[in-house]
Amino acid sequence: MIQHTETAVVCRGVKKVYGEGASSVQALRGVDLEVRSGELLMLVGPSGCGKTTLISVIAGILDPTGGECIVFGENLAAMPQSRRTAFRGKSIGFVFQAYNLLPALSAAENVAVPLLILGQRRAQALQRAQAALEKVGMGDRSHSRPSQLSGGQQQRVAIARALVHDPRLVVCDEPTSALDADTGQRVMSLLREVAIAPGRALVIVTHDSRTFHFADRIARMDDGHIESITDNAAEPASARHAP
To answer: What is the per-residue pLDDT across 79-95, written as a single tens digit (0 to 9) for each?
Structure first.
């Protein structure tokens, strides 16, 4: 088992093929990538280049066809399903582009789901969910169901759900795509705070150039490869985002 004190994620030669034979599609073509603890890494590139597939492999939602992805010293693809589910439930938060909120539950109940899965009592889980909703400006809509919320509001609920259990790794797919400029900046500031906490890391897929300045590093993808990785600024992220 690989152990890292300063590296949250290590991908080596990661490949992902969908389908078989002549109709198969190579989404990832041998990706090498490291995500450092305490950083916000952005993945950018054209649609269809493999960004969402890569973060799904990193989060243990998809298994790679080849290569390996080590998250906090653990190879998720090699774990039994029950252990992988437990590891993801405790250590990883995922913000889906399609939100994936449960329609029959209120905003607070949706946000509380990760805590309930971890065995927390309902009253305490809902209390923490309310606090998480307030952080993303949704405290006054905690009793609303997804059908009663706009796309941007649902996005903020999804972000609160990804953060509520205090995960070590947060993976986001276009977290500001449905948000106006001001709300997007506020949400990114919140995600920035999460990323720089000790022992944490954040990976964001985005096309939103208005948020690029929040990144510590930007990895550019094309055709299933990492084409380049650049440091976003000479000074530390904490200095770039100081009040």
So the answer is: 998 999 899 999 999 98
7-240 folds as Rossmann fold (3.40.50)
Q: Rounded distance, CA 14 to CA 123, Å? A: 42
Longest Cα–Cα distance of the chain, Å, equals 54
pTM: 0.87
Locate the domains of the chain by residue range.
Answer: 7-240
- Token pair 């509520």 is at which residue? 164
| Token couple for 66 | 């080849």
Tokens representing 92 are 């990883």
